[in-house]
Queue: 3 jobs
Job 1
Amino acid sequence: MKGFLLTVSVNSYFGPSWQLEISEGDVTILKSADGISTEKVVCELNRRTVSLLEKQLADAGVFAWGHHYLDCCILDGTSWSVVIRSGSRQVESCGTNGYPQNWPDFMRILHEHLGFKNSFTSFL
């Protein structure tokens, strides 16, 4: 578990936004339905859960993501960024209306471990 960091930021134009940080086992989630008011959720993941999360992210191929994904045909959509550091592996990726092919797998893994199933539904 030592050295694990995951940060995710998803921002929708005139829509819901959220930010997630997992540092070791400490989890902070900031959610905004309207871009103005923010709800903060803080919790912890145990060592076993963090280890499983790291393994599932690696198995899903997130460390092979490209640096930037873009769908230039959509103007006012969603921008996102992800940083993951796990031991000697790391990835920094972002996008504007474009996503890696395995983005749904990434989101499913987050849902599975964080239990906030309804909070991220619009971003699947």
Job 2
Amino acid sequence: MDIVRLLAGRQYRLFAVVQNGSVQVRDFIDSIEEQEQAHFFALFDRIIEYGPPKNTKKFRHIGDKVYELKTNGGSRILCFFGTNFLKNSLILTRGFPKPKPTQLRREKQKTLKILNDSKNLRIIKI
């Protein structure tokens, strides 16, 4: 599985999963309203400089080593913590608008599949 580095700061690095030559998280962010984009960019800046927020309205564990980044408007990005050579990193996997419970479960399962294959992550440049 390929990943691409999105941002790096003093404390953390953010990577995104590449599937079929596309970065779904980047495509999702490009598709949402500017206000929602600004919320995510502020959250990303905070994470790379200081680490993940303690505020569970912005960043929370949803089980099985999967976390979600949230905006006030309800948009979500699922992620997990990097290991081994990716310490102090978050791997962003899926972005989507405010979900219904069944969609959140489906998206979490997709993220778990990537997490289970995370030993084979390879950093590429796009």
Job 3
Amino acid sequence: MDNLKFIQVETDENIGIIQLNRPEVLNALNRKMVNEIVRTIEDMDRDEKVKVIVLCGNGKAFAAGADINEMAQDSAIDLELLNQFADWDLLLQVKKPMIGAVHGFALGGGFELALACDLLFAAEDAKFGFPEINLAVMPGAGGTQRLTKLMGKTKALEWLWSGEMMTASEAEQHGIINKRLPKELVIEETINYAKKLAEKPALSVRFIKEAVYKAVDDSLLEGMQYERKNFSLLFSTEDQKEGMKAFMEKRKPQFKGR
């Protein structure tokens, strides 16, 4: 994606890295920035050379929330006509793994962007929260839904009603993040993990992701039927043949992602 103003994009081997880049406002998310993030993720999701997508923030924070100056005067009709959350809905369709590397603040829309990732690695100084209630509004880009699925109803209500920030330690305790790391290592270690994941067979990675989200959203029977269908489907891939052959020959498999 060309002419990016609010994010920086690079690749490290087969890892696509998106860095939020409004450090002067702690990477506060405006509408154009969200559009750049989502369109770039979509491009990476279609790029066969990219196996894993990593999101991180430049400066002192991951993202300190939405750009309040942009929306303070909006009416309900304005918001409905803008349909600004349509971009966020597209993140539900991403097939490749998305991993967030969070340091500093991940608040409001920034927390929602972090929760849209499949895995989260966080610095010891990371702070998460939904302060929207203190502005007499509420999360609008999936915050109430994703947080509840991770924490359960009662804990989600506690945090959403309080508007307070949770520490990285509390986020780890509640299953929101996968790992706490020193601030200076969080991006490096996230990329290292992404590189290890990128070595795995891409279709297995994709189908496992889809099956796990089925487990979150659907009934047990529906999830198990979906799992079995894709288990069988993987036996039609080149990587399955290579993986089992390599196992029997006691060598490292050479996966092609097909």
